[in-house]
Amino acid sequence: MIVNISEAKANLSKLVAMVYHGEKVVIAKNNLPLVDLVIHKPEGKRKLGLLVGKLKVPEDIMEEDSDINEMFYDGEGERSK
């Protein structure tokens, strides 16, 4: 079923019920189809821990790197602590 926007505004509850019961509804502007009215499908829960065992964090990850310090501090030595 194709309905124009003005008709969809006036009959939204009816159109939602139709879609809920399996009918296809397309909303159009000047008889040009724009969007489909569809039932909401929950995305499901996020799955945590996808990278467990696939990523190795280096032991020295929190240590300062002299090359990076030089880039940020322009050769002024270590940053003040």
Strand content: 15-25%
**What oligomerization state is this entry in?**
single chain
Order of helices and strands: EHHEEH
Sheet with the most strands? 3 strands, mixed
CA gyration radius, whole angstroms = 29 Å
Please state the overall shape, judged from the principal axes of the Cα atoms: elongated
Helix/sheet category:
alpha+beta
Residues in helices, as a percent range:
25-40%
Strand order of the largest sheet: 1-2-3
Count of extended strands: 3
Separation of the first and last Cα atoms: 69 Å
Number of helices: 3
Q: Mean pLDDT, as a whole number? A: 89
How would you explain this protein's 3D organization?
There is one protein chain. By secondary structure, this protein is α+β, with helices and mostly antiparallel strands. It has a domain at 2-37. The chain contains three helices and three strands; from the N terminus they run βααββα. The protein has a three-stranded mixed sheet. It is elongated and about 70 Å long. The relative contact order is 0.12.
Gist of the model:
This protein is of the alpha+beta class and 81 residues long. 28% of the residues lie in helices and 17% in strands.
For this entry, give a set of tags.
alpha+beta, 81 residues, 3 strands, three-stranded mixed sheet
Architecture blueprint of SSEs:
Elements: E1 2-4, H1 5-10, H2 12-20, E2 25-29, E3 32-37, H3 66-73
Parallel strand pairs: 1-2
Antiparallel strand pairs: 2-3
